């Protein structure tokens, strides 16, 4: 017998028995129909509907499939994952953030859980003569000769996450944490909200939608930009070209998160999906972009101006470097976002299949800037899955001057990696605009955790530097970091990313001739 007919038969029989007992014995039996009769109606409905084959063939029982599918992430995370499983961050990575944010014990027992012989395993060469570093506040100065107001930037900062994507309590806690520990908070492309004004230094990100500095047509408004960029808490301005989560796609703010307050900050219509265009309307070529950067520098009163990019076509970044040389206009910094970035909601193909991974992108940018003689003018900031001291030192070794962390800071706020950021139902109140959820995030508790995560991560970074004999960040070298590349060979980052000759090419002409040989 078909399962559908069997289920319908059982439900009909149960209902008939109850009705019969009600007529034969007492009408109280009819109260028992409150459950089986609605179930019978549902089973009959699903037997004739055509949208869901599972429910048509297995009325009622088919619901278990949807129930188990909906709780599958929770079951996997709480019961089936090992400490080294889980994506995009495994349990061990999440745990170290929680421990450092709470100032708890962060040591592990009984040795490493990873396989040191596995392909991809990474390690650093320690020194038999460790050094001592007194100052744990690792910083770099951003601002070239054209910059009137250089900024002393921590090497570990809060990455771009907008108010709207994150809740007001989350933004407030992040900013207060940045103020407490003296590091920078990137606003994201959603503009500067009141929740960003809690004492933390801001890196104002200006995206293709020009949120916070746009006119009614959505174009760049110079006077609005001048007013906001000259605020005391705005220390740098970052022009967003693309991001790793969705390179070439533009930003997405779902209508559910576009509240009247968010819309007022962004100068858009509330309750609508807000789509940032893929490209800027203020410029359309590398040369025009350099002149736009110069305009932003002048409007801001000489503050550091840079741009954020996820590397795709290598030729295009080389064209940007040519434009720097030809115009003699140099951005103060470049933010390199790897394709591993993930705080932005994005189509699956853009998340999984577009953009260059961080280490390849960073090494390429470093080589290109040096080959063109531009590295002395431009600082490099990176982002993508950076949560530990070892993560920080790896990117420093590949040429970065500082880094951002987005999801690491979200974990410090209490994020449990529920993977519901784009559904406006974040269970811990970080990535939602629903009051009953974000009010559960206590700002006074969480901002301290953000500061402690930053402080303890830099402490761990310094401890690794001491163990390796790196007295300063400039001593951190690619030839001291290693990766298992196959079953037999282990190569240094120098060999993997910069070649075995121990130095980079000497000119951009030589560089361009060699760049595409492979």
Automatic annotation (TrEMBL):
<dbReference type="InterPro" id="IPR013785">
    <property type="entry name" value="Aldolase_TIM"/>
</dbReference>
<protein>
    <submittedName>
        <fullName>Glutamate synthase</fullName>
    </submittedName>
</protein>
<dbReference type="InterPro" id="IPR024188">
    <property type="entry name" value="GltB"/>
</dbReference>
<dbReference type="InterPro" id="IPR002932">
    <property type="entry name" value="Glu_synthdom"/>
</dbReference>
<feature type="transmembrane region" description="Helical">
    <location>
        <begin position="7"/>
        <end position="24"/>
    </location>
</feature>
<dbReference type="GO" id="GO:0006537">
    <property type="term" value="P:glutamate biosynthetic process"/>
</dbReference>
<dbReference type="Pfam" id="PF01645">
    <property type="entry name" value="Glu_synthase"/>
</dbReference>
<keyword id="KW-1133">Transmembrane helix</keyword>
<comment type="similarity">
    <text>Belongs to the glutamate synthase family.</text>
</comment>
<keyword id="KW-0812">Transmembrane</keyword>
<feature type="domain" description="Glutamate synthase">
    <location>
        <begin position="145"/>
        <end position="470"/>
    </location>
</feature>
<keyword id="KW-0472">Membrane</keyword>
<dbReference type="GO" id="GO:0015930">
    <property type="term" value="F:glutamate synthase activity"/>
</dbReference>
């Amino acid at each position: 017998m078909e399962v559908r007919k069997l289920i319908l038969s059982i439900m009909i029989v149960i209902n008939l028995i109850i009705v019969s007992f009600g007529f034969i014995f007492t009408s109280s039996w009819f109260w028992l129909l409150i459950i089986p009769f609605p179930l019978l109606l549902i089973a009959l409905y699903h037997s004739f509907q055509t949208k869901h084959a599972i429910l048509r063939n297995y009325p009622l029982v088919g619901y278990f499939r949807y129930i188990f599918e909906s709780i599958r992430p929770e079951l996997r995370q709480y019961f089936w994952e090992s400490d080294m499983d889980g994506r995009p961050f495994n349990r061990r990575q999440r745990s170290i953030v929680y421990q450092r944010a709470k100032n708890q014990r962060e040591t592990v027992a009984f040795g490493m859980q990873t396989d040191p012989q596995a392909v991809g395993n990474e390690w650093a060469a320690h020194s038999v003569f460790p050094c001592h570093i007194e100052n744990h506040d690792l910083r770099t100065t951003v601002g070239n000769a054209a910059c009137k107001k250089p900024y002393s930037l921590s090497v570990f900062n809060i990455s771009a996450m907008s108010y709207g994507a994150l809740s007001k309590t989350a933004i407030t806690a992040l900013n207060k944490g940045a103020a407490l520990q003296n590091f920078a908070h990137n606003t994201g492309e959603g503009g500067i909200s009141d929740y960003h004004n809690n004492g933390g230094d801001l890196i104002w990100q200006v995206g293709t939608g020009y949120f916070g500095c746009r006119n009614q047509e959505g174009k760049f408004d110079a006077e609005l930009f001048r007013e906001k960029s000259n605020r005391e808490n705005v220390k740098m301005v970052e022009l967003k070209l693309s991001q790793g989560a969705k390179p070439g796609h533009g930003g997405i703010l779902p209508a559910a998160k576009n509240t009247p307050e968010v819309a007022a900050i962004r100068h858009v219509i509330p309750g609508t999906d807000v789509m940032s265009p893929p490209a800027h309307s203020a410029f359309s070529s590398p040369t025009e972009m350099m002149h736009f950067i110069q305009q932003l520098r002048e409007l801001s009163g000489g503050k550091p101006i840079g741009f954020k990019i996820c590397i795709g076509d290598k030729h295009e970044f080389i064209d940007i470097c040519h434009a720097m040389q030809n115009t003699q206009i140099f951005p103060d910094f470049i933010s390199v976002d790897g394709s591993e970035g993930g705080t932005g909601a994005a189509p699956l193909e853009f998340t999984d299949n577009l953009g260059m991974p961080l280490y390849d992108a960073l090494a390429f940018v470093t080589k290109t800037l040096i080959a063109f003689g531009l590295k002395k003018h431009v600082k490099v900031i990176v982002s993508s899955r950076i949560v530990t001291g070892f993560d920080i030192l790896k990117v420093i070794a590949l040429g970065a001057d500082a880094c951002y962390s987005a999801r690491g800071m979200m974990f410090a706020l209490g994020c449990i990696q529920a993977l519901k950021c784009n559904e406006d139902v974040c269970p811990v109140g970080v990535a939602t605009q629903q009051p009953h959820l974000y009010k559960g995030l206590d700002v006074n508790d969480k901002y301290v955790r953000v500061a402690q995560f930053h402080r303890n991560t830099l402490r761990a970074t310094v401890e690794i530097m001491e163990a390796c004999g790196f007295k300063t960040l400039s001593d951190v070298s690619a030839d001291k970091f290693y990766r298992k590349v196959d079953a037999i060979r282990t190569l240094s980052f120098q060999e993997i990313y910069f070649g075995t000759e121990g130095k980079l090419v000497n000119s951009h002409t030589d560089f361009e001739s060699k760049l595409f040989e492979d």
